[in-house]
């Protein structure tokens, strides 16, 4: 699977470029000043299945953290992965080297380790080298289609954004499931000291800092 975070989206009556069918004129703010918003920003975290051409979008609020990134993998597996890959011997995750799922984020490794224990499946993470994020499949297989789903529309709530993202499809058969997170993710949470001192993560002999 390929994972990444898309840029945050403001929730509120903000004008977005594009066209959409309406039954009348729409009134919206032409500037996205924070004072105009509901103080709520959506964080779309994507998990893309490169084999099945299916995607899971975990729509969260708060901070983009390693906990969020690990939870997205867990929710993807329960919603989509386990039915298709029952009995699989391991999961391969392709991720950028920075951000909430970066190779320097102990919290991500700790929470992903918990997910692996919960699922009973080994999880292997391969981070792309710096400045190579454009080679991450999710960027040009999923994220390029999400802005089109909300173009020309007023996104007044998270549930409305969830519905729009769930309708994304392509001629090649892309299918998207979008789920709202049940918690608000807080910044500043760190991995436990015991985990950092006795980290069970195994490093590859080749490019061990990334794999």
Structure, described:
28% of the residues lie in helices and 21% in strands. With 211 residues, the chain is α/β, with parallel strands linked by helices. The chain has a domain at 2-85 and 136-187. Strands 1, 2, 3, 4 and 7 form a five-stranded mixed sheet that branches. Strands 5-6 form a two-stranded parallel ribbon. The longest helix has 19 residues, at 66-84. It is globular. The two termini are 15 Å apart.
List the main descriptive attributes of the protein structure presented here.
single chain, 211 residues, alpha/beta, five-stranded mixed beta sheet, two-stranded parallel ribbon, 28% helix, globular
Q: Which helices and strands, and how do they pair?
A:
Elements: E1 2-5, E2 9-10, E3 41-49, E4 54-62, H1 66-84, E5 91-95, H2 106-119, E6 123-127, H3 137-143, H4 146-150, H5 158-166, E7 175-185, H6 193-197
Parallel strand pairs: 4-7, 5-6
Antiparallel strand pairs: 1-3, 2-3, 3-4
Helix pairs in contact: 1-2
Structural class: alpha/beta
Mean of pLDDT: 89
What profile does the largest beta sheet have?
Answer: 5 strands, mixed
Strand portion, in percent? 15-25%
Number of helices: 6
User: What is the N-to-C order of secondary-structure elements (H for helix, E for strand)?
Assistant: EEEEHEHEHHHEH
The rough form would be described as globular
Task: Please provide the count of β strands.
Answer: 7
Q: How much helix is in the residues? A: 25-40%
Summarize the structure.
This is Transposase. InterPro entries: Transposase_36 (IPR011518). The chain has a domain at 2-85 and 136-187.
């Amino acid at each position: 699977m390929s994972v990444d975070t898309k840029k945050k989206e403001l929730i509120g009556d903000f004008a977005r470029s594009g066209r959409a069918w309406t039954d009348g004129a729409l009134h919206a703010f032409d500037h996205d000043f924070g004072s105009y918003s509901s103080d709520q920003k959506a964080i779309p975290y994507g998990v893309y299945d490169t084999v099945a051409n299916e995607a899971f979008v975990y729509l969260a609020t708060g901070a983009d953290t390693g906990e969020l990134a690990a939870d997205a993998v867990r929710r993807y597996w329960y919603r989509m992965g386990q039915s298709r890959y029952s009995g699989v011997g391991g999961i391969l995750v392709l991720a950028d080297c920075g951000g909430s799922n970066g190779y320097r984020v102990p919290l991500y490794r700790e929470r992903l380790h918990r997910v692996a224990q919960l699922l009973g499946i080994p999880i292997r993470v391969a981070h792309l080298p710096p400045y190579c994020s454009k080679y991450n499949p999710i960027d040009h297989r999923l994220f390029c289609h999400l802005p089109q789903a909300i173009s020309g529309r007023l996104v007044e709530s998270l549930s409305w954004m969830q519905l729009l993202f769930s309708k994304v499809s392509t001629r090649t058969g892309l299918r998207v499931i979008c789920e709202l997170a049940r918690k608000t993710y807080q910044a500043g949470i760190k991995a436990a000291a015991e985990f950092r001192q006795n980290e069970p993560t195994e490093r590859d002999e080749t490019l061990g800092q990334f794999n």
